[in-house]
Structure formats: structure tokens, C-alpha cells
Amino acid sequence: MPAGRKFQRVKVSLLAGFKEDEETKVHKTRLLDLSAGGARLIAAEIIPVGTRLTVQIKNPEKGEVIETMGYVVRYKKMDQENGYEVALRFMGMKKEVATAIGEIVHVVEREERIQKILREGKK
Asked: pLDDT digit string (tens) for 24-54?
């Protein structure tokens, strides 16, 4: 795990949604990575550093939607696609939400290990 990280971060491609504090419209997005401490998602427009977001993450195993709050710590223009990569740090997370995100991270790690074993078996 890189220095400065408290939680294991995994690459994902998960459906999600986000909205700014005062907005009612939820913007559909895709998560690029996820940990119990934060996430990186795709946004169509720049979201300034410090902006608070409500994030909704669909648990691929259970189908339930997990909701938590975070704030933008950085953004950058995407190279291959239109839009921006937006990095979030979660805040004030309830224990059950942290557990649910931990379960998603565990499932993704397990799937990566299985795929690696299958690839190595084909060699």
C-alpha cells in the first residue's frame, strides 16, 4: 500500500452516482477505484477541490446502494475520454457503510486473484 494510505485501494468499474450538497439531481458516473477512505470517479465537468459530494455506490454482489459523503481532494482532465477524474476523500462514514465498502473491495480483490490464477493456468 502506498505511503499515506490508510486503506487498501482497488481498481474498479462500478456504477455510481453523486450530487453536490444543495443539488437534487444525481449525476450518473463510474468509479475508477475505491477504498474505505475514498474513491476516484468520472465527472463531465470540473468539480472544485473542497466541494462536498454525496456518493451513491451500487454493491455488485448484493445490488444495494451504499450512500456516503466525501469531498474533492483533486481532479484532472482525462486523457482518453471527455471528462475529469475526480478524487474524493470520504468523511463521517457510518460503520455499516465502511463495512459494505470493505466487502466490495474484498470481492474485487478476490475476483482479481481468480483471474490471475486462470491467466497463469492458460500459459
From this structure: 899 999 999 999 899 999 999 999 999 999 9
Question: Which of these, 94, 47, 45, 92, lies nearest to 73 by C-alpha position?
Answer: 47
Q: Is 60 exposed, middle or buried (0-12, 13-18, 19+ CB in 10 A)?
A: middle
Tell me the domain boundaries of the chain: 10-121
* Amino acid letter, residue 101: I
Pick the closest to residue 56 from 24, 16, 20, 21 (CA basis): 16
Report helix, strand or coil for 123: coil
pTM higher than 0.85: no
* Domain 10-121 architecture: Beta Barrel (2.40)
